[in-house]
Design brief:
By secondary structure, the protein is α/β, with parallel strands linked by helices. The protein contains 16 helices and ten strands.
Length: 598
């Protein structure tokens, strides 16, 4: 039997710690898939030794699958228990406060002791006060009885899961991978009972997730449907679990598609398709390697094999809990297989710099940074496709910007408290970021754009970022920053705060187009300060060169066109209003004439 004193001593934070540790162990076990696959009996090896090896390998795989199923089941039980214990503790605190306010004390046995009866009560009020205190006592007795019943149920459910795991009663889920083993029949049924969001919008996804029971959410974390990982508005931890569970299936599907294509030889027309598939497989392998980095832990927030190239987003740190979250979008020639590892390292360095500045400021706080390659950036071999995916076209930026806007919204929608959110865009990625910000309702608090060929507008207000919170960096000898291709040169736009890329007390100078995030540079220091919410730490300053002089006139021309368009819209509105008024007057006059002759 669970006593009131037992429940008072329960610590939900210890259950949460156990839940996190089980998750780490679960991921370690699932991560052994490649080693197990590599340890299979080699083709052509026959005989008793080969058969014995195959039998031992199968036994090992079965053992691993059973262990993963047990960890998954216990982890759901622990997560559910942690949530329930937290609620029980709150109910105990409320009961204790109510008891104390009325002169009672709740004992460790769950009894009610009258420790402070009211004094000097007028005789004519004695009965009323007595009855009121009796009602409070009876309510406390009922509350305590319900708390103990619920605590007993919580303890029993957790014990049931632990016993089932200890006695090897949990059957692994169906499927060929270790990740599939976590989707046991019971967890799969519980996860399926959650249904699906009404539509795939960040708001609908967030509302659906928050409407679920603690048990349903925990089951979805262990037996996630593949679609869960791509839903903006779902917590990062759940998306990470879903995408990790799906990564082997994605790779297997790609390998099967490649093998099918290669059967009977590959034609010249099929070679391009084969190259795409091989690049996607390499991208999946790069994702797996990147999320395998241990400190800080990574979260896999996007894993999308559709289209010509695989898309992915990886966070350094915990996006669900960080006080400061940044989303970095790279540009031209970016691919997951060729770029993710390097940019992930840059984000790790940026997080460390931001954390250092927070510590030095005495403010504290946690930082997370996402490398978002959730769109197909233009590539070198597409440069001639001026009406399609060329770097000279805004098509990819607009399409990617719509997805990026949803990603921003999803971070805020998935959390109970909004983090300080910073959007970072480099090169063509700054153009994509510009279109994302123009989508509105993004919840971005600060925007950092560097090496930018334009943000898709001449008016900073279109970005929807708070005044004074849009920052621009341009390095010496960076020609891309002066292209003024998409909405004009941001260097000439009113409203941006120029941050220095020159040598300073905080770091060295950067030059060219690609080194802004290099360690120990002024530009990296500046970006880290903004990400940490410490604008007072930044070093302001602009770098003007020949390119800025050349881009000034085209920028002014574009601003003139925008102003003319705005004037034309207003003029047409005025003319239309005048015409409406005039026509209304004609109709009124006609009515009066009609009245005269009627």
């Amino acid at each position: 039997m669970v006593s009131y004193a037992d429940v008072r001593r329960w610590k939900p934070e210890e259950l949460e710690s156990a839940h996190a540790e089980l998750g780490s162990r679960r991921n370690d076990l699932i991560g052994l898939q490649d080693e197990l696959d590599g340890a299979k009996k080699t083709d052509g090896w026959k005989g008793e030794a080969a058969d014995a090896s195959a039998a031992e390998h199968a036994k090992l795989v079965d053992g691993m699958r059973s262990l993963i199923a047990e960890v998954a089941t216990v982890r759901v039980a622990v997560a559910t228990a942690a949530d329930e214990v937290e609620q029980l503790k709150k109910r105990i605190e409320e009961a204790d406060r109510e008891a104390e306010a009325n002169g009672f004390q709740i004992t460790d046995e769950g009894g009610i002791r009258d420790v402070a009866p009211p004094q000097d009560v007028p005789e004519d009020q004695l009965e009323e006060v007595k009855q009121r205190r009796l009602a409070v006592r009876d309510k406390l007795v009922a509350d305590i009885e319900k708390i103990l019943d619920d605590a007993e149920q919580t303890d029993a459910e957790l014990a049931k899961a632990l016993t089932a795991a200890e006695q090897d009663e949990i059957k692994p889920g169906e499927g060929g991978t270790l990740a599939d083993a976590a989707s046991t029949a019971d967890l799969g049924e519980l996860a399926a009972s959650a249904g699906k969001p009404a539509n795939d919008s960040p708001e609908a996804n967030a509302e659906w997730w928050k409407s679920l029971s603690d048990e349903q959410r925990a089951a979805l974390m262990e037996a996630p449907p593949a679609w869960l990982g791509s839903r903006d508005g779902i917590p990062a931890a759940a998306r990470d679990m879903a995408n990790r569970a799906n990564i082997d299936n994605v790779r297997q599907d790609l390998v099967a598609e490649r093998d099918s294509l290669q059967q009977g030889g590959v034609t010249e027309d099929e070679q391009a398709k084969l190259d795409q598939i091989n690049a996607k497989i390499a991208s999946v392998d790069q994702v797996r390697e990147t999320i395998g980095k241990e400190q800080p832990p990574r979260q896999l927030l996007v894993l999308d094999p559709s289209g010509e190239r695989l898309k992915a987003a990886v966070a350094v740190g915990d996006v669900d809990k960080a006080d400061h979250v940044s989303v970095f979008t790279p540009g031209y020639t970016t691919t997951v297989d060729g770029s993710l590892d390097n940019y992930d390292d840059k984000m790790q360095e940026l997080v460390a710099q931001s954390q250092d500045q927070l510590a030095e400021s005495g403010k504290g706080g946690e930082v997370a940074a996402v490398t978002w390659i959730g769109y197909e950036a233009p590539q070198e071999d597409e440069i001639g496709d001026l009406t399609g995916d060329s770097v000279a076209s805004s098509n990819s930026a607009k399409e990617g910007g719509a997805k990026l806007n949803d990603f921003y919204q999803g971070i805020n929608a998935s959390r109970d408290n909004d983090p300080h959110l910073t959007a970072i865009g480099h090169s063509y990625g700054s153009t994509t970021t510009g279109y994302a910000l123009q989508g509105g309702d993004h919840g971005v608090d600060d925007a950092i754009l560097y090496g930018s060929p334009g943000v898709g507008t001449n008016d900073i207000e279109d970005l929807g970022v708070p005044e004074g919170h849009a920052y621009l960096l341009e390095a010496k000898n960076d020609p891309v920053a002066d292209f003024a291709r998409f909405g004009g040169d941001p260097s000439h736009m009113d409203g941006f705060t120029d941050l220095s890329t020159s040598k300073s007390d905080h770091g060295s100078e950067v030059t060219g187009h690609s080194d802004y995030l290099n360690p120990d540079t002024t530009s990296q220091h500046n970006m880290a300060a903004v990400v940490a919410g410490l604008p007072e730490n930044t070093v302001e300053g602009s770098t003007d060169g020949v390119g800025d002089v050349i881009s000034y006139l085209p920028h002014q021309a574009q601003e003139g066109v925008s102003a003319a368009q705005d004037w034309g819209s207003q003029a047409w509105s005025d003319v239309k209003d005048f015409g409406d008024d005039a026509w209304s007057g004609v109709k009124d006059a006609g009515s009066k004439v009609k009245d005269l002759f009627s």
